[in-house]
What we know:
Number of helices: 0
Oligomer: single chain
Helix content: under 10%
Number of strands: 16
Mean pLDDT: 88
Distance between the termini: 34 Å
Amino acid sequence: IVDNGTIVGQGQSFIPLSGTEKLVEARFQIKVGAGVPTGTLYAELYDSNDASPAIPTGSALARSEVVLASAITSAYSEVIFRFNLRNPATGADQSGGLDLANAEYFIVLRHDDGAAGAYFHVDGSEADADATQNAAAEDPVSTWSGDATDDIRLTVKSCPAIHGVPG
Protein backbone atom coordinates (compact mmCIF):
# COMPACT_ATOMS: atom_id res chain seq x y z
CA ILE A 1 0.00 0.00 0.00
CA VAL A 2 1.39 3.40 -0.92
CA ASP A 3 0.11 6.50 0.88
CA ASN A 4 -3.17 5.43 2.42
CA GLY A 5 -2.78 7.69 5.44
CA THR A 6 -1.10 4.93 7.46
CA ILE A 7 1.79 4.11 5.10
CA VAL A 8 3.36 7.05 3.21
CA GLY A 9 6.34 5.25 1.68
CA GLN A 10 7.02 1.63 0.85
CA GLY A 11 10.39 0.25 -0.16
CA GLN A 12 12.39 -2.83 -1.00
CA SER A 13 16.05 -3.40 -0.30
CA PHE A 14 18.38 -4.70 -2.99
CA ILE A 15 22.04 -5.51 -3.47
CA PRO A 16 23.52 -4.23 -6.75
CA LEU A 17 25.87 -6.22 -8.92
CA SER A 18 29.53 -5.94 -8.05
CA GLY A 19 31.36 -3.01 -9.61
CA THR A 20 30.17 0.55 -9.87
CA GLU A 21 27.16 1.08 -12.10
CA LYS A 22 24.56 3.85 -12.26
CA LEU A 23 20.90 3.29 -11.43
CA VAL A 24 18.75 3.71 -14.54
CA GLU A 25 15.31 2.45 -13.56
CA ALA A 26 13.21 0.55 -11.04
CA ARG A 27 10.15 -1.51 -11.93
CA PHE A 28 7.26 -2.44 -9.62
CA GLN A 29 3.95 -4.24 -10.09
CA ILE A 30 1.32 -1.68 -8.98
CA LYS A 31 -2.48 -1.39 -9.06
CA VAL A 32 -5.09 0.99 -7.68
CA GLY A 33 -5.90 -0.17 -4.16
CA ALA A 34 -8.93 2.01 -3.44
CA GLY A 35 -10.76 5.01 -4.83
CA VAL A 36 -9.40 7.13 -7.66
CA PRO A 37 -5.87 8.22 -6.69
CA THR A 38 -4.72 11.53 -8.19
CA GLY A 39 -1.37 13.22 -8.71
CA THR A 40 1.84 11.33 -9.40
CA LEU A 41 4.01 8.52 -8.07
CA TYR A 42 7.79 8.49 -7.99
CA ALA A 43 10.62 6.36 -6.65
CA GLU A 44 13.59 7.38 -4.53
CA LEU A 45 16.92 5.68 -3.96
CA TYR A 46 18.14 5.44 -0.34
CA ASP A 47 21.09 3.84 1.36
CA SER A 48 20.27 0.94 3.69
CA ASN A 49 21.15 0.79 7.37
CA ASP A 50 22.23 -2.85 6.72
CA ALA A 51 20.34 -4.09 9.80
CA SER A 52 18.17 -7.19 9.92
CA PRO A 53 15.52 -6.27 8.96
CA ALA A 54 16.94 -3.29 7.10
CA ILE A 55 15.34 0.14 6.63
CA PRO A 56 16.21 3.14 4.43
CA THR A 57 18.56 5.63 6.06
CA GLY A 58 19.59 9.24 5.45
CA SER A 59 18.29 11.53 2.73
CA ALA A 60 17.23 10.32 -0.69
CA LEU A 61 20.24 9.83 -2.98
CA ALA A 62 18.19 10.19 -6.17
CA ARG A 63 14.61 10.65 -7.39
CA SER A 64 12.92 9.20 -10.46
CA GLU A 65 10.73 10.88 -13.03
CA VAL A 66 7.06 10.89 -12.05
CA VAL A 67 4.37 8.51 -13.26
CA LEU A 68 0.81 9.83 -13.52
CA ALA A 69 -1.57 8.23 -11.03
CA SER A 70 -4.21 8.13 -13.77
CA ALA A 71 -1.99 5.71 -15.75
CA ILE A 72 -2.30 3.00 -13.05
CA THR A 73 -5.18 0.53 -13.49
CA SER A 74 -7.09 -1.79 -11.16
CA ALA A 75 -5.00 -4.79 -12.28
CA TYR A 76 -1.35 -5.28 -11.37
CA SER A 77 0.90 -4.07 -14.17
CA GLU A 78 4.56 -3.18 -14.44
CA VAL A 79 5.27 0.48 -13.77
CA ILE A 80 8.70 1.83 -14.75
CA PHE A 81 10.38 4.62 -12.78
CA ARG A 82 13.32 6.12 -14.73
CA PHE A 83 16.24 7.87 -13.06
CA ASN A 84 18.08 10.73 -14.80
CA LEU A 85 21.24 12.67 -14.00
CA ARG A 86 19.07 15.56 -12.75
CA ASN A 87 16.48 15.39 -10.00
CA PRO A 88 13.14 16.10 -11.72
CA ALA A 89 11.75 17.89 -8.65
CA THR A 90 14.67 20.29 -8.07
CA GLY A 91 16.87 20.17 -11.17
CA ALA A 92 19.86 19.36 -8.95
CA ASP A 93 22.63 17.11 -10.23
CA GLN A 94 22.03 13.66 -8.76
CA SER A 95 24.60 11.76 -10.85
CA GLY A 96 26.72 10.93 -7.78
CA GLY A 97 23.67 9.56 -5.96
CA LEU A 98 22.96 7.19 -8.85
CA ASP A 99 26.29 5.38 -8.32
CA LEU A 100 25.54 1.90 -6.97
CA ALA A 101 28.81 1.30 -5.16
CA ASN A 102 27.54 0.29 -1.68
CA ALA A 103 26.49 -3.15 -0.52
CA GLU A 104 22.75 -2.51 -0.04
CA TYR A 105 20.15 0.08 -1.04
CA PHE A 106 16.41 0.70 -0.93
CA ILE A 107 14.05 1.82 -3.67
CA VAL A 108 11.10 3.62 -2.05
CA LEU A 109 7.76 4.40 -3.72
CA ARG A 110 6.00 7.65 -2.92
CA HIS A 111 2.55 9.08 -3.75
CA ASP A 112 2.22 12.51 -2.17
CA ASP A 113 -1.50 12.87 -2.98
CA GLY A 114 -2.67 9.68 -1.25
CA ALA A 115 -5.53 9.43 1.20
CA ALA A 116 -7.29 6.76 3.25
CA GLY A 117 -9.81 6.29 0.42
CA ALA A 118 -7.50 6.64 -2.62
CA TYR A 119 -4.22 4.73 -2.71
CA PHE A 120 -2.17 2.07 -4.54
CA HIS A 121 -1.17 -1.53 -3.86
CA VAL A 122 2.35 -2.72 -4.64
CA ASP A 123 2.63 -6.42 -5.44
CA GLY A 124 4.68 -8.36 -2.96
CA SER A 125 5.02 -11.64 -1.22
CA GLU A 126 4.49 -12.66 2.37
CA ALA A 127 7.17 -15.29 1.79
CA ASP A 128 10.69 -13.86 1.84
CA ALA A 129 12.28 -14.57 -1.54
CA ASP A 130 15.79 -13.63 -0.38
CA ALA A 131 16.82 -13.86 3.27
CA THR A 132 19.28 -10.97 2.83
CA GLN A 133 16.62 -8.53 1.54
CA ASN A 134 13.35 -7.17 2.92
CA ALA A 135 10.50 -4.72 2.50
CA ALA A 136 10.00 -1.65 4.69
CA ALA A 137 7.12 0.77 5.27
CA GLU A 138 7.16 4.40 6.46
CA ASP A 139 4.43 5.87 8.65
CA PRO A 140 3.26 9.52 8.52
CA VAL A 141 5.80 10.61 11.19
CA SER A 142 8.74 9.34 9.07
CA THR A 143 9.35 6.19 11.10
CA TRP A 144 10.44 3.16 9.07
CA SER A 145 9.56 -0.44 9.94
CA GLY A 146 11.42 -3.27 8.24
CA ASP A 147 9.74 -6.61 7.64
CA ALA A 148 12.18 -9.51 7.34
CA THR A 149 9.50 -11.89 6.06
CA ASP A 150 8.08 -9.73 3.23
CA ASP A 151 9.43 -8.70 -0.14
CA ILE A 152 8.08 -6.39 -2.85
CA ARG A 153 8.39 -7.44 -6.49
CA LEU A 154 11.15 -5.12 -7.69
CA THR A 155 13.39 -5.11 -10.75
CA VAL A 156 16.36 -2.73 -10.72
CA LYS A 157 18.22 -1.83 -13.91
CA SER A 158 21.65 -0.25 -13.95
CA CYS A 159 24.48 0.17 -16.41
CA PRO A 160 28.13 1.20 -16.43
CA ALA A 161 28.96 4.87 -16.71
CA ILE A 162 30.60 5.98 -19.93
CA HIS A 163 32.06 9.50 -19.73
CA GLY A 164 30.15 9.94 -16.45
CA VAL A 165 26.77 9.20 -18.04
CA PRO A 166 24.85 5.90 -17.80
CA GLY A 167 25.97 3.97 -20.89
